[in-house]
Write a structure and sequence with these properties.
CATH class of the largest domain: Alpha Beta
Shape: globular
CATH superfamily of the largest domain: P-loop containing nucleotide triphosphate hydrolases
Radius of gyration: 28 Å
Number of strands: 14
Mean pLDDT: 82
Number of domains: 4
Helix content: 40-55%
Oligomer: single chain
Structural class: alpha/beta
Length: 456
Amino acid sequence: MNRRVLVVERPAATADVVSLLAEIGWTVQRASDAEALAAEAPRCRVGIAVLDDCAAFRRAGLFRAIVGADLEWIGIAPPGAVDDPACAQLLCGFFDYLTLPVDAERLRFVLGHALGKAQLRERRLWGGAGTANHGMVGTSVPMQQLYRTIDKVAPADAPVLIRGESGTGKELAAQAIHRGSVRRDGPFVAVNCGAIPSSLIQSQLFGHEKGSFTSAHRREIGSLEAACGGTLFLDEIGDLPLEAQASLLRFLQESTITRVGSTQSLKLDVRVVAATHVDLVAAVRERRFREDLFYRLNVLRVEIPPLRVRGDDIEAHARHVLARYRRDASPALLGFSEAALAAMRSHSWPGNVRELVNRVHGAMILCEGAWITPADLGLDSAPRSIGAISLAGARQSSERELVLAALQRNTHNVSATARELGVSRVTVYRLARRLSIETKAKPERPARGQTLGGYG
C-alpha cells in the first residue's frame, strides 16, 4: 500500500499542506469538489480535509462526499472551526484532526497511524487477498508448478505454446513470460485469432500495402511488425486459417514476412507465444492444423490448470476479486457467508477464473446484506439443475473426479499424484479406497524416518 494521500480543499483555501506532505514523503492527490473527490479516492487509503470554511464545504456537497469515501480521514482546521456544530460532527467521524498551524511531526505521526489502520481494516474485511506470483493469484500445488515453468521458459528466447481451458488466464501467463524475458522492454502485442474474420487475418498479422485490396487506402503494418523487438501473443491459435498458418510457419522458420500486396521481404525479431484451449494434436490428425507449425510452436509448453483442481485458490481468488472491486460494493458489505464459500468450493467452475470474477463482481453489486450469499453468486440453484443430490454426494463426486484425473495424468504413480494434489501418499490411498478408485499399485512403504503425513 503506497503513501498516497487525498487532500480535499476549496479552490480559495489558504491553508495549503501539500508542500508539507511532500516534505515528509507523501504523494498528494488533490480534489476541490465532490466529483474530483469520488474520482481520486479509489487511488488512496488516507484523506485530509482542509476545513477552513465548513459552510462552503457543505454548500459544495463535500461533507457528504467525504462521509461516502472509504478512507481514513484526517481534518485540518483553524482553531475556531471546531466550534461549528456541523464541522465538529464531521470531525467526530474522522480518524484524527489537527489545527493550524500544522506541526510536521504531529502530521507525520497521525498519517502513519491512519495508514496502518487502513491496512488492518482492509485485511480484516477483504481477506488481505493479493497476487502470489507473476500477477496471478494462487498458491496451490498446480499453480506453484505453473510459476516454476514460467520461470524456466521466460528467459529462453524460443516459441511457447500455452494450453489451458477458456477463462484460465492464458494471456496473463503470456504477459508473465514476456516480463521475464530479455524482451521485457519491447512491445507485447496480443491477437485473438478467433475474433478476426478469415479474410482479414493475413492483413492483421502481416500488414498490407496501399491499394492491395478495396479498402486499403494506406499502408498498414501488421501485428508481427508492431511486435518487433518484443513478443507477439497469438490467442486461440487453433482458429488460425490454414493459409495464415503457412505464412506464420514461414516467419517462424525464416524470421521474415511479406506484407499483403508487396513482394518485399521484411526481417523481424519477434518471439511468438501462442495459446489454445483445443487439442492441437487432434486438430493435426483431423488436418485442421498444420503438423509442421505445431512442432514449430511447441518448442516450450506451458499448461494452465483449471480452477476446479486448485483447491483453496478458489477462495483466495474470490477474496482477491472482492478487494479489487470493493469500491463497487456497499460500505456495509463485510465479505462472504460460510454458505457462499461452501457453494464456491463445490461448484465445478466450467468458465474458470473468468466465471468466478464475473460471479463475485456481480454479487458485490447486487448483495443487499452484510454477507454475500449463494443466491447473490447465482449458485443457490446449481444442485437442482443436475438432479436431486446432496451436498455431500456432489462433493464426493467432484472429489472422485479430481483424484481419478490426477492419477491418470501421472500414469497411476501415487507419489507424483500426491505431490500434484498437495497431500501425502497415504491420503491418496485413503481417498482411493473411500471413492472406489483402483490405484493399480500396492501401497508404498514409507522410507526410514519418513512420517505418514509427508509428501511422496
